[in-house]
Specification:
The structure is a single chain. The chain contains eight helices and no strands. By secondary structure, it is mostly helical. The N terminus is likely disordered.
Length: 134
C-alpha cells in the first residue's frame, strides 16, 4: 500500500501489464537521451554544424565521451577542439576512450590499469560502453 500511494503521488506507473516491475516504456532510451544532450551541448557551447555532423556519425557512447571531455576543458574555440576530438575518435577510438576512462577511475583502479601494457589498456578501454557503467 505504501508503495502504491507513493507511486500515485509521484505519478509513477505501478506495474507493467506483464506483471513484472515498473513500466519503463515511457522512459527515453539511452540513445534518445544522448540526442537531447547533443542538442543541449550544441546550444551551450555554440558548436558549429560540421562538428555536430561529425558527432552524429559516432556511436552514442563515443558522443558521450566527447561531450564529457569538451565540458571539462576550457578552450577559446570549442568547435575546433570538438572537431579534433571527433577526428581522434574516428582514428584512434581506444586511445581516446582510455583517456576518458583514466579520468573517471579511482586511484587504485587507475594504478591497476596503468600496470598493464599500453596495448592491453587500449583493449580494456575498447570493451567499455560508457553509457552502461556508473
Amino acid at each position: 500500500k505504501k508503495v502504491s500511494r507513493l507511486q500515485s503521488r509521484a505519478n509513477l506507473p505501478s506495474r507493467s501489464p506483464t506483471g513484472g516491475g515498473g513500466d519503463l516504456r515511457g522512459l527515453p532510451s539511452p540513445a534518445a537521451a544522448m540526442e537531447f544532450d547533443l542538442a543541449a551541448f550544441q546550444t551551450e557551447h555554440n558548436v558549429d554544424e560540421r562538428c555536430m555532423q561529425g558527432m552524429g556519425e559516432l556511436t552514442p557512447s563515443d558522443q558521450a565521451i566527447i561531450v564529457d571531455l569538451v565540458g571539462t576543458k576550457a578552450c577559446k574555440n570549442v568547435s575546433a577542439f570538438t572537431w579534433s576530438l571527433v577526428r581522434k575518435m574516428q582514428a584512434e577510438p581506444a586511445r581516446l576512450k582510455l583517456d576518458y576512462i583514466r579520468k573517471h577511475l579511482d586511484e587504485r583502479a587507475r594504478e591497476g590499469l596503468d600496470a598493464l601494457p599500453l596495448q592491453a589498456q587500449e583493449y580494456v578501454a575498447s570493451q567499455v560502453d560508457v553509457l552502461k557503467v556508473r
